[in-house]
Amino acid sequence: MNNQTLKLRRIAIDTYHENVAYLHRECEVYRVEGFQALSKIKISANGNKILAVLNVVDDDAIVTPTELGLSEQAYKQLNVSDDCLISVDHAEHPASMDAVRRKINGERLTLEDFVGITQDIAESRYSKMEMAAFLVASGQNSLDRDEVYFLTQAMLQSGQRLNWSEPLVADKHCIGGIPGNRTSMLVVPIVAAHGMLIPKTSSRAITSPAGTADTMEVLAKVNLSPGKLHDIVRKQRGCLAWGGTARLAPVDDMLISVERPLGIDSQGQLVASILSKKLAAGSTHLLIDIPVGPTAKVRHMREALALRKLFEFVGDQLNIHLEVIITDGRQPIGRGIGPTLEARDVMMVLENNPKAPEDLRQKSLELAGRIIEFDPDVRGGRGYAIARDILDSGRALEKMNAIILGQGAHTIDFTPGKHCFEVKACHSGIVTTIDNLQMAKIARIAGAPIDKKAGVDLVHKTGDTVTKGDVIYRIYAEFMSDFEFAKKLVAQNNGYTIEKQ
Fold first, then answer.
1. Count of CB atoms situated within 10 Å of the CB of 54
2. 455-458 and 336-337: which strand pairing?
3. Which single residue of 327, 342, 419, 451 could bond 483 by disulfide (Cβ 3.0 to 4.6 Å)?
4. pTM of the model
């Protein structure tokens, strides 16, 4: 054990779900212990311990040879004061990596294997490279239905679990892949206005231009503590928050931080991610939306039916009432793609604006109606009419405004990015297809979801007749470099198919 101590220094760097430590190359401890860059080290101070990935620096302005620097996340996790004396030692290799290697070789893992893996990830024993190895192995060799159940259980055990002490706690989730599909932000206020409990905790975007949390953040704070979350839900019967700060299945957020840059989203991981988060949030009744279309995440009906069976199997094992609805995923929902533009669409629907996107309104009413029918006092088939009445009467808008106020309202500005490029029809005809993947890619290249005002605003949808030179959509970006990249991508493929008449 290394008995030499170093002085702690806080390094103002956001390393996003990864603990990072900084040692000077001339540090005596670094030399004596034989540490290597990117190796894991154990840091101890005042009885607290954390694990971190080591970065070696040569600049005294970052850390001096007598200091150890910690990134923002690591500093917060160690929970000691600046200039505190700390000791450093080698970290033990995570024992669960043996299970990951077995999965790489195509072996089937047990519940104990997955519990070991998730515990080590939760305790920061895995580097991002090791997490990537686990994700790729699980995706490439796939998880059978029992393994998906085991992984869901293990992820559920990794963090806190909310208990609302009510027999019916509703939620909904879309598996994603459809740009602009912000139905949750309409379903929650409608269902909450009906009186049902619907504490909606969402992830941020993984491979899309916006997640529910990213879009809601345009309107209000989404990083809520468990206490704040409880207060809002008790008062308003609903919320639209990010699950990360509430420590609900935190391993899921850590894996998502690796999935996002790799663009990985395998079905087994998807089911485990969704169900672990929903169960951790205290849900008893869950509606899953699986959009199907040639450029959606799920391309074929047979694939959707197989995924529905997997959700139902794991849901049954975990004793949650689960219904799966398969929806039309042939084109984006609404007009806006990107947080600000999608938030604008949501508020237009809530305000019953005649120019609001009709497809977003209709799909949201259908989903809200199905959830309202979880209510034992509602007769089957009546849910849609109840949801429509709540929306048309303005009660949904009133509820949304109350939720926004409760979470902490932001100054709302729906003005999109300052750089705008109009994409025009190259010939006259009818819009027959819109490529979901390409439209999402264009919006991401333009800067969404990091830049809230970046994205794509659709002018025409499938079935519309256009004349040569008509604007079919607009691209918005905050930064010129993103703007130029998006224009180059459009020049290669604008995502629209227009059949000549």
1. 20
2. antiparallel
3. 419
4. 0.88
Reading across the β-sheet that carries 496-499, which strands appear in turn? 465-466, 429-434, 496-499
Pick from 168, 115, 144, 146: nearest CA to 316: 146
Residue in the structure block whose two tokens are 């290249």: 445
The answer to whether 30 and 69 are in contact (CB under 8 A) is no
Dump strand ranges (E) for 36-178. 40-45, 48-57, 67-70, 85-90, 170-174
The pLDDT tens digits of the residues spanning 248-281 come to 778 888 888 888 777 777 889 999 999 998 999 8
Judged by DSSP in three states, 21 sits in strand
The gap between the terminal CA atoms of the chain, to the nearest Å, is 78
Which residues are catalytic, by number? Answer: 265
Question: Residue 175: how many CA atoms within 13 Å on its side-chain side?
Answer: 28
Which pLDDT belongs to residue 3? 54
Neighbours of 119 (CB within 10 A): 17
What one-character-per-residue DSSP string does 74-101 give?
A: HHHHHT--TT-EEEEEEPPPPTTHHHHH
CB-based contact 371:196 (threshold 8 Å): yes
Distance CA 230, CA 178 (A): 31
Name residues of the chain where pLDDT drops below 50.
Answer: 1-2
Q: Which domains does the chain have, with CATH numbers?
A: 5-90 (2.40.40.20), 97-141 (no CATH), 170-245+281-407 (3.40.1030.10), 419-499 (3.90.1170.30)
Q: pLDDT at position 194, please?
A: 98
